[in-house]
Design brief:
The complex is a heterodimer of chains A (312) and B (502).
Chain A: H1 9-17, H2 22-32, H3 39-51, E1 53-56, H4 64-75, E2 88-92, H5 96-103, E3 109-113, H6 124-136, E4 141-145, H7 148-152, H8 156-170, E5 174-178, H9 181-184, H10 187-198, E6 206-208, H11 220-237, E7 242-244, H12 252-265, E8 278-280, H13 283-296
Parallel strand pairs in A: 1-2, 1-8, 2-3, 3-4, 4-5, 5-6, 6-7
Helix pairs in contact in A: 1-10, 2-11, 3-12, 3-13, 4-5, 6-8, 10-11, 11-12
Chain B: H1 4-15, E1 44-45, E2 47-49, E3 52-54, E4 61-66, E5 71-77, H2 81-99, H3 104-120, H4 122-133, H5 137-159, E6 171-173, E7 176-180, H6 186-199, E8 203-207, H7 214-226, E9 233-235, H8 240-248, E10 254-258, H9 261-271, E11 277-281, E12 287-290, H10 296-308, E13 320-324, H11 328-340, H12 360-375, E14 379-381, E15 397-400, H13 407-410, E16 417-423, H14 426-434, E17 441-445, H15 449-458, E18 463-466, E19 485-486, H16 491-496, E20 499-501
Parallel strand pairs in B: 1-5, 7-8, 7-10, 8-9, 10-11, 12-13, 12-17, 13-16, 15-16, 17-18
Antiparallel strand pairs in B: 2-3, 4-5, 6-20, 11-19, 14-15
Helix pairs in contact in B: 3-5, 3-7, 4-5, 5-6, 10-11
The chains are: A alpha/beta (312), B alpha/beta (502).
Chain lengths: 312, 502
């Protein structure tokens, strides 16, 4: 092995895609939180956020009935006809066929987590089989997890090959690649993992922050590092990939701050559910509450809104 | 490392389609979000001498206008030599009889009180500062006001610990200090000047800049409310002539000036041989040096903070970007994208990033220098943002292809204009950075710690920021080399400039 190639996979990728300064990233995203979104801009932003939601239930106790209820809420989030349906429902692969039945003939997509979510710790052929099964049952989108063990061990080729294999298994279904940022820990690693995924996925696929099953999920900082990677990849190759922050976004105010980040980093072309999604469950009711508040001038009691997915 | 632009050209050539571009349009436009706190302005502001608001003896007033819409805000009393005399007399009396004799721990109580009263009225003062000076409300709210209060807090902490300022020696007050401050951070510069002087037991005659006197005279209300003994702080307003009267007054033990190098030189000439102490904080033409191994997106953010903060009206603004040739294209491309989303406009809108230029003369000076840049062959880029029809506004501006001999690389523009130069080696970067009459500040962006340490000793600048820019703290001394002045403000070093050691 030559001296050059014996440098770690991390430093070689760092040379290629550059590194990230944590203090600088946090300074940048703090500016998003001072943006003041009022009146018509606020209503527009709230509705946009609703339309970008992947309404999610990922529990061991999920049943066809729970999924049906989730799908109904996804189709009709609120009695106000101006509120758009959400982008997708996101369920475990075993629930895909139930969800698919309920949202058939609507714009709402069925997204399925697959590849032994959330750990990904099963043999590759089993993970691929799960993807194929979910697609066969009617999933429009697959949310996969990357092999964090391989990433942290520096086996970048393996990480990338596995993503490429899942792309193949997806067929025409869109793919969302979950980096599980809290297990990568540093912004540098998040940028590296983003590029590993970006280089093998297709236009219209997504990269996604987290499973929602670990301590730290989507933050403005993680989001910023990932959308900057998407921007750099797009400007280099012309391939436009989407972004999905997931977990931890519970309030309308947070959602608007994420959208400001998109507006000021990726621009108008990403302000659409085709290129930006929120993975969340409790966020929806707060968005609805704020939309109602802008209309009536007062906050409504919680029982005016149908139950949120997390309240079962 | 191939550059982004080169890659893009390759991509477009390969597929025969246009190079990918980002669209920063108005798909989701923000509504106006004006700050609505009442600035509580008076129609007319008198001088503050001997603890009272007094009309000027000459009876003259001048207008202070809002640079954001060119409307008159208030009338300000114009101080003549007789007023300055009265101010010095009040200051001498207060220093000799009360303030200079008061134990430090008692003086500290007044300084704490000033800090807290300022915090109590922070929103009101922030709005007044933005109205009078044109800076965006988010900066006056999040930077100027908190920092001004922090300076009073910090120096209140020193007032009863002055025996530790210079261990083994005794620090005594100088007497009456004459202070002249600029228009870019009116209230904050006042805090920088007053807090150390007062903590040390001096009294003060201070003159705010003629375009931005309002917050200084509003601060006089706080001084009065704090119960500070009459005459310890005297505020006289006016332009250059009033400043000259302060500088040349025989009762001044020391002059502290922040402003242009030209005026600073005149003051130094005037004081030669008088025995008065002098500190000067003057202009700058700081180099912000970006190496190829720097985290580029964060460097770009730092470059933007460095030059577009406060419309570039910052003496330590990073107005010269020195960028390593291998990454020059990428950095410039990223900078252009970044300034596309800067919001220029109404200083009182909470979403404004770049507010109004402080005055018409300053706007004309910026235009003149920018024109010279174009004439001398540098390439200019300005984002296509809409500017308000009334008021003094200037688009954020980048110049590429700038060399050391361009005027825009040598003269202080004091506006939102960045001159971009390139370098090949570390040695060249240092040489270019130091090839200026100024030496106030510099920035270094690199992943390599040893390079930061090397450059921080080789750059002739009072402050060197590493992987960040425009960071301030009351405990950190600030001041210049060469024609950027001498003396330090902040920290122990700043206090030493307000005392005599025996």
């Amino acid at each position: 092995m030559s001296l050059l190639s014996s440098r770690s996979a991390f430093s070689r990728l760092a040379d290629e895609v550059g590194t990230v300064d944590a203090v600088g990233v946090e300074e940048r995203v703090a500016k998003y939180t001072t943006r003041s979104i009022k009146k018509a801009a606020k209503v527009q932003g709230l509705k946009l956020a609703v339309s970008m939601l992947d309404l999610t239930t990922l529990e061991g106790k999920d049943t066809p009935g729970k999924v049906a209820s989730l799908c109904q809420k996804a189709l009709h989030p609120h009695s106000d006809p101006d509120v758009p349906p959400v982008a997708a429902v996101c369920v475990y692969s075993a629930m895909v066929r139930h969800a698919a039945r309920h949202v058939a003939d609507s714009a709402v997509k069925v997204a399925s987590v697959a590849t032994a979510f959330p750990s990904g710790q099963t043999p590759l052929k089993i993970r691929l089989a799960e993807v194929r099964a979910a697609v066969a049952d009617g999933a429009d989108e697959i949310d996969m997890v990357i092999n964090r063990g391989a990433f942290l061990a520096g086996e970048f080729d393996r990480v990338q090959d596995e993503i490429a294999a899942v792309v193949q298994a997806c067929g025409s279904a869109a793919l969302k690649v979950i980096l599980e940022v809290s297990e990568l820990e540093t912004y540098d690693s998040i940028r590296f993992a983003s590029f590993l995924a970006l280089r093998v996925i297709r236009e219209g696929d997504f990269i996604k922050t987290s499973t929602g099953k670990t301590g730290l999920n989507a933050t403005l900082g993680n989001n910023q590092v990932m959308i900057e990677a998407i921007r750099d990849h797009y400007l280099d190759t012309g391939v436009a990939v989407g972004m999905k922050p997931a977990g931890g976004i519970r309030t309308a105010k947070q959602a608007l701050q994420f959208l400001v980040a998109v507006k000021e980093t990726l621009g108008d072309a990403w302000l659409t559910s085709a290129r930006y999604r929120f993975g969340a469950s409790s966020l929806l009711n707060d968005l609805l509450r704020q939309i109602e508040k802008e209309k009536s001038g007062a906050y409504q009691a919680p029982y005016y809104f149908t139950e949120a997915a997390e309240s079962y | 490392m191939t550059t982004l632009t080169a890659e893009r050209k390759k991509a477009s050539g390969r597929n025969g389609r246009a190079a990918p571009e980002l669209i920063f349009g108005d798909l989701w436009e923000f509504d106006p979000a004006p700050e609505t706190a009442d600035p509580r302005l008076k129609p007319r502001y008198d001088l503050f001498i001997g603890g009272e608001f007094v009309p000027p003896r000459g009876g003259k007033y001048f207008d202070s206008i809002n640079p954001g819409n060119e409307q008159k805000l208030a009338e300000i009393a114009l101080a003549g030599p007789a007023d300055v005399d009265a101010a010095y007399a009040a200051a001498q009396r207060a220093q000799a009889e009360v303030w200079g004799r008061m134990p430090g721990r008692e003086r500290a109580k007044y300084l704490f009180r000033l800090a807290r009263l300022l915090q109590d009225r922070a929103r009101e003062f922030a709005v007044a500062e933005s109205l009078d000076g044109g800076k965006p409300i988010k900066e006056s709210r999040d930077f100027d006001l908190p920092m001004a209060a922090a300076h009073f807090f910090y120096h209140a902490g020193w007032a009863d610990k002055l025996e530790y300022v210079a261990p083994g020696r005794t620090a005594r007050p100088l007497g009456v200090i004459g202070q002249v401050i600029p228009w870019n951070f009116p209230l904050l510069m006042m805090a920088w000047k007053l807090a150390p002087a007062l903590a040390m037991g001096n009294s003060v005659v201070i003159k705010p800049a003629e375009t931005t006197s309002i917050t200084a005279l509003k601060f006089a209300e706080i001084i009065r409310d704090s119960g500070l003994p009459p005459g310890v702080v005297n505020i006289v307003a006016g332009a250059g002539e009033t400043g000259a009267a302060i500088v040349n007054h025989p009762a001044a033990a020391k002059i502290a000036f922040t402003g242009s190098t030209e005026v600073g030189k005149a003051i130094q000439r005037a004081l030669a041989g008088t025995g008065k102490k002098l500190t000067l904080e003057l202009g700058g033409k700081a180099a912000n040096i970006v190496f190829e191994d720097a985290p580029l997106d964060q460097a770009v953010e730092g470059i933007v903070n460095g030059i577009f903060f406060n419309q570039g009206h910052v003496c330590c603004a990073g107005s010269r970007l020195l960028v390593h040739e291998p990454v020059a294209d990428v950095v410039v491309a990223k900078l252009r994208q970044r300034i596309r989303v800067l919001r220029v406009g109404d200083p009182l809108d909470k979403n404004t990033d770049i507010g109004a230029i402080n005055s018409r003369p300053q706007l004309e000076k910026i235009r003149e220098l920018v024109d010279s840049g174009v004439k001398e062959g540098a390439e200019m880029y300005q984002p296509p943002c809409r500017l308000p029809s009334k008021g003094f506004y200037f688009r954020p501006t980048l110049f590429t292809g700038v060399t050391q001999s361009h005027r825009i690389a040598r003269e202080e523009i004091f506006g939102p204009v960045l001159s971009i130069l390139t370098f090949r080696t570390v040695e060249e970067a240092v040489e270019k950075a130091n090839n200026t009459a100024y030496g106030l500040s510099a920035g270094v962006w690199t992943d390599k710690g040893s390079r930061i340490l090397k450059l921080s000793t080789e750059l002739k600048a009072g402050v060197v920021w590493a992987n960040t820019y425009n960071k301030f703290d009351p405990s950190s001394p600030f001041g210049g080399y060469k024609e950027s002045g001498f003396g330090r403000e902040g920290g122990r070093q700043g206090l030493l400039d307000y005392c005599q050691l025996t």
